[in-house]
């Protein structure tokens, strides 16, 4: 690893950057030694209706995890993302919307966006939505998604976005978990030229589940000129509802610790958890990280290719950029439509300066060859970003060469739904990059590596990645279940936030994320709980037992490998394999679709009946030479059958 190529900071870039090496050092030290002074100062990047007098008040004590930032301050997120920009940049473009069809786009100024948000905020109120109510968004990447988020924020409602790729079942569970009263959706979504029936999915979620009893209004955006089934008691057209609403709506004064949104994500065990993010600290952190990490300057056009259904879309398409008065690009489509040069075409068309995407997309394009972007002019690009999973050095250097033309710094941003914003990253004007390493902590972030006993490791080491103290963007709780929040993140090791990732620290103090250390897998940068996939599988009549593990996948990073033991009376077949795959897609969504399914007559279990996942993981990785100790297995011969019939052979 010491021979690893290092990409030094370009002095010309550093000279103009918000943060250079000296500033990083000084600011980092202050952020750790005097967080109140540091974050007290940073809080001023927002407009407060009532200024805070306190800054940090946090404890990770497992008996009483309590995280508060700017706790006596009051502000409004929509006000900070819209109103305060009107005087100076009302006519500046806030959102460039690029449709699925390359012929379709729209430029929305700060003033337009402000008016659209006010109208929809009034429409929400007209339907009885009040401060603290939860509004579920199940939407494609269209401007109305941004409008709906900001409208909720404006009136103090809490949004819960459910990614449009999730199934009706998954949507229903999230509506029920959040006790939401209102859904915002569109009749269809458009991706890669195909119309996906979002409204029909909402109907299924509401008609077949308890969720139907909670929801009294469904706002429907007419994205595609097609009819959909209609329930007059519940459904209203978005456009009709906003048409007669005034373009003014007061921004509620919210306490800094009032909830802004809930976002569901998968964990090791149980159903997905609704992580809660609050108002003041979250926005300070999203704003500061967006500016410093992407080195955003006035007038730049910034593009993050994520979906608003994930946290990246929340913090780095909407809240961070708009708080900073940026021009943020929102893309409805996919990188391969109408062809694989699409990302390049969009960069050229809108003269994008900062481009932020995921390793899985980079690898898919890389497979298409060096000239995949055609003759697209990429010269506007100043910086590239990566997020979602470790970026392998080959993909990093390809990204640097083909997108970055050998000159753009790459920020490999490590963070999580729980962290609200980026925690580990090479700042582009300060930190030399090592391909594959997320490198160094952002301001206020104190990473540490622990061994299994919880001892902190010093110097070069590998262990569980934890964070020793709070930062303002951190999630405050799991919606309605603070005990589970404590249990999940603050109980394995005392007094620290446990990330669930493993990491290595090298001789220069750089962090290299090695992947999850829990039963979570990362498929194309999307988090999947193995327990969730297992429980979907055992709900199928043919399945007696299921075990799910990850395995290395060239494009997706990790693929989903499933071991299934059938109920007596069922025979293994290709048909059944197909059926099980379809079943999981239907229960959770296409992102959970198993890549490989192995029918296993029995699972490797300890004498006490516990499935030994370590062994299943090794076999799925096609790395069974060193299975470790199998002497505790009830029946060691099970392993031979599993190896013989393994699905992943290199
Ligand atoms: C998990 C969080 C953060 C937004 C997208 C995913 C993995 C994320 C990186 C990176 C290595 C990464 C981690 C983390 N991850 N970014 N730059 N390098 N790993 O959010 O769905 O909450 O998943 O994604 O394993 O724990 P998420």
Automatic annotation (TrEMBL):
The modification N6-acetyllysine is found at residue 610. Keywords: Acetylation, ATP-binding, Ligase, Magnesium, Metal-binding, Nucleotide-binding. This is Acetyl-coenzyme A synthetase. Pfam families: ACAS_N, AMP-binding, AMP-binding_C. One of its GO terms (molecular function) is AMP binding. The keyword Metal-binding applies. Mg(2+) binds at residues 538, 540, 543. Its EC number is 6.2.1.1. Residues 532-610 form the AMP-binding enzyme C-terminal domain. Belongs to the ATP-dependent AMP-binding enzyme family. It catalyses: acetate + ATP + CoA = acetyl-CoA + AMP + diphosphate. The lineage of its organism: Bacteria, Pseudomonadati, Pseudomonadota, Gammaproteobacteria, Oceanospirillales. Acetylated. Deacetylation by the SIR2-homolog deacetylase activates the enzyme. CoA binds at residues 191-194, 312, 524, 585. Catalyzes the conversion of acetate into acetyl-CoA (AcCoA), an essential intermediate at the junction of anabolic and catabolic pathways. AcsA undergoes a two-step reaction. In the first half reaction, AcsA combines acetate with ATP to form acetyl-adenylate (AcAMP) intermediate. In the second half reaction, it can then transfer the acetyl group from AcAMP to the sulfhydryl group of CoA, forming the product AcCoA. Residues 24-81 form the Acetyl-coenzyme A synthetase N-terminal domain. Transmembrane segments: none annotated. One of its GO terms (biological process) is acetyl-CoA biosynthetic process from acetate. ATP binds at residues 388-390, 412-417, 501, 516, 527. InterPro entries: Ac_CoA_lig, ACAS_N, AMP-bd_C, AMP-bd_C_sf, AMP-binding_CS, AMP-dep_synth/lig_dom, ANL_N_sf. It comes from Marinobacterium marinum. Its cofactor is Mg(2+). GO terms for cellular component: cytosol. Residues 83-469 form the AMP-dependent synthetase/ligase domain.
């Amino acid at each position: 690893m010491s021979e690893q190529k290092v990409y030094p900071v370009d002095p010309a870039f550093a000279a103009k950057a918000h943060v250079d090496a000296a500033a990083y050092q000084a600011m980092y030290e202050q952020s750790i030694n005097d967080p109140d002074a540091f974050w007290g100062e940073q809080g001023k990047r927002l407009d407060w209706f009532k200024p805070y007098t306190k800054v940090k008040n946090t404890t990770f004590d497992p008996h009483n995890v309590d995280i508060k930032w700017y706790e006596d301050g009051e502000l409004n997120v929509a006000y900070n993302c819209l109103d305060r920009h009107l005087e100076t940049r009302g006519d500046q473009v806030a959102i460039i919307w690029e449709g699925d069809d390359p012929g379709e786009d729209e430029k929305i100024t700060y003033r337009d966006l402000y008016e659209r948000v006010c109208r929809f905020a009034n429409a929400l109120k007209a339907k009885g939505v009040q401060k603290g109510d939860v509004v579920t968004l199940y939407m494609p990447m269209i401007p109305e998604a941004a409008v709906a988020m900001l409208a909720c924020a404006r009136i103090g409602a809490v949004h819960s976005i459910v990614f449009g790729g999730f199934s009706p079942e998954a949507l229903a569970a999230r509506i029920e978990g959040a006790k939401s009263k209102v859904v915002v959706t569109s009749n269809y979504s458009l991706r890669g030229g195909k119309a996906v029936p979002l409204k029909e999915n909402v109907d299924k979620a509401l008609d077949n589940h308890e969720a139907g009893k909670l929801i009294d209004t469904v706002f429907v955006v007419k994205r595609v000129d097609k009819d959909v089934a209609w329930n007059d008691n519940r459904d209203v057209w978005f456009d009709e509802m906003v048409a007669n609403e005034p373009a003014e709506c007061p921004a509620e004064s919210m306490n800094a610790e009032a909830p802004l949104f809930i976002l569901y994500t998968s964990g090791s065990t149980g159903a997905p958890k609704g992580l809660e993010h609050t108002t003041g600290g979250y926005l300070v952190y999203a704003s500061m990280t967006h500016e410093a990490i992407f080195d955003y300057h006035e007038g730049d056009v910034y593009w993050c290719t994520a979906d608003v259904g994930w946290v990246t879309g929340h913090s780095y398409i909407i809240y961070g950029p708009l708080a900073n008065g940026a021009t943020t690009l929102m893309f409805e489509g996919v990188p391969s439509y109408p062809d694989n040069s699409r990302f390049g075409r969009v960069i050229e068309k809108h003269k994008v300066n900062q481009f932020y995407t995921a390793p899985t997309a980079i690898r898919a394009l890389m497979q298409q060859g060096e000239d995949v972007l055609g003759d697209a002019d990429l010269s506007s690009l100043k910086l590239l970003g990566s997020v979602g999973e470790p970026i392998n050095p080959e993909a990093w250097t390809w990204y640097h060469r083909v997108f970055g033309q050998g000159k753009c710094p790459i920020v490999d941003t490590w963070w999580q739904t729980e962290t609200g914003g980026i925690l580990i990253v090479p700042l582009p004007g300060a930190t030399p990059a090592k391909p594959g390493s997320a490198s160094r902590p952002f301001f206020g972030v104190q990473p540490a590596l622990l061994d299994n006993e919880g001892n902190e490791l010093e110097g070069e080491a590998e262990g569980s990645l934890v964070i020793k103290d709070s930062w303002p963007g951190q999630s405050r709780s799991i919606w309605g279940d603070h005990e589970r929040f404590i249990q999940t993140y603050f109980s394995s090791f005392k007094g620290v936030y446990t990330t669930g990732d493993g990491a290595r620290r090298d001789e220069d103090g750089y962090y290299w994320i090695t992947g999850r250390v829990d039963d979570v897998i990362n498929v194309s940068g999307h988090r999947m709980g193995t327990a969730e996939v297992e429980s979907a599988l055992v709900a199928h009549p043919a399945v007696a037992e299921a075990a799910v593990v990850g395995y290395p996948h060239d494009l997706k990073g990790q693929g989903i490998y499933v071991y299934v033991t059938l109920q007596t009376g069922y025979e293994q077949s290709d048909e059944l394999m197909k059926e099980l795959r379809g079943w999981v897609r239907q229960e959770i969504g296409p992102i959970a679709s198993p890549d490989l399914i192995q029918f296993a007559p029995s699972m490797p279990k300890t004498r006490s009946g516990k499935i030994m996942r370590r062994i299943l993981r090794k076999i799925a990785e096609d790395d069974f030479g060193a299975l470790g100790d199998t002497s505790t297995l009830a029946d060691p011969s099970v392993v031979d059958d599993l190896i013989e019939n393994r699905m992943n052979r290199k």
